Amino acid sequence: MKKRKFLKGMGAATALLFTNPFETLGQAVMMPGTTKKTALVLGGRGFIGPSIVQSLLANGYEVTLLNRNKTNTHLFNNLPLIVCDREKEDKAGLKSIDSKYGKTYWDVVVDTWQKSPKAVSDFLDEFKDQIGHYHYISTVSVYDKWNKKFIVETEPLNPLPNFPKTIKEEYRYAIRKTLAEEAIRERIANYTIYRSHGMRDFRSSNPKKLIDEPFWPIRFYRGGEILLPNVKNHHMQMTDVKSMVNFIIHCSNHKVFGEYNIACRPTLFKDYVSSLIHATKKPEKLHWIDGDFLIENGLIPYKVVPFWRTQPQGSYYFNVQKAIEAGFEHRPLVDMITDQINGYRYRHPNDDVRFGKQADGTMKCYSPDQEKDIIKKWKLKNGID
Ligand SMILES: NC(=O)c1ccc[n+]([C@@H]2O[C@H](COP(=O)([O-])OP(=O)(O)OC[C@H]3O[C@@H](n4cnc5c(N)ncnc54)[C@H](OP(=O)(O)O)[C@@H]3O)[C@@H](O)[C@H]2O)c1
């Protein structure tokens, strides 16, 4: 069977990203008589930052970046850059910023920070009076308990240690994010916090780590006989970065403040599989195999088989109704998956990423041979031809 032509039907913006995803998009054309709004993006050149910057530009913002000028320095070279190290103690990095920025007002500030929460409080202590609307990319990891369904924004957050006095004090990710949120709430009211989960985009979340190439989209793109854990009715959630970014713009335009869970609606695994099929090509055959049998054969939920979680069952169930009512729209999963596959094909035109045991002995999901072998054993066990 012939492969679908993935570019067919893609939106203009996605097509542009496909041909040249790491270049700056042009500035949007402004109507005569309108003044551009200003945006400061703290970070902006990693995984989700570029999508935020591109969307702000496309929506007519004048964008300035703030980072150390170390990561992906080829990106957005035509934009003003404030070179600043937020991890210096005693606000030394912030204090070294050119004095002209001491009076600059930004309509919008987007902060993607995930390291020391002290860097978030330091920034706000210095600049809070110069910000129209502060947006912070947080995570669902801020919730204390995950073993219930329909987690809403008012659920208790992680119990917290004292706020760190220095940048170098170390905490685990969930605590850093929760402390950062607390720091924001204590300092300003004009904020929106996006508690997201499992972000997916054209870009890979960590290009250096093979596992972050999207396993299921690639597996369906390759076609053939496909092994699946028989958890058709498990719920799962993930976040399309483009949809989240559109919501950031929406919140800026409509002054939507507060905390929001951001992800697709809880989706059945079998519906995700339908979207995978729709975005790629019809597989030769799907083999829905019992979880116990997969575990016996070394396919461990989540660690080895992405999106299959046993505890809590499924891959999350966060209530996103508050965001939907405020204007959040998650694109169809098939669009998001198509973007992921296009990104993969751009990075690996020879489709040469190999899953399974790696040269250093680590496992990245499972190999085609393992998959074939388990399917064969499963058929034998169940008398399937
Ligand atoms: N992946 C997921 O599924 C997921 C889920 C939920 C939430 N999140 C959150 O999403 C966010 C993703 O962020 P991202 O990495 O994609 O953001 P990003 O803004 O695209 O990239 C990180 C930026 O931070 C800058 N930076 C790093 N250290 C710095 C320092 N000391 N001082 C100043 N700037 C510094 C980097 O530039 P330089 O190195 O040049 O300084 C880079 O531009 C994180 O907050 C994460 O917690 C992710």
UniProtKB/TrEMBL annotation:
One of its GO terms (biological process) is monosaccharide metabolic process. GO terms for molecular function: UDP-glucose 4-epimerase activity. One of its GO terms (cellular component) is cytosol. Pathway: Carbohydrate metabolism; galactose metabolism. Residues 39-262 form the NAD-dependent epimerase/dehydratase domain. Signal peptide: none annotated. Belongs to the NAD(P)-dependent epimerase/dehydratase family. This is UDP-glucose 4-epimerase. It comes from Flagellimonas eckloniae.
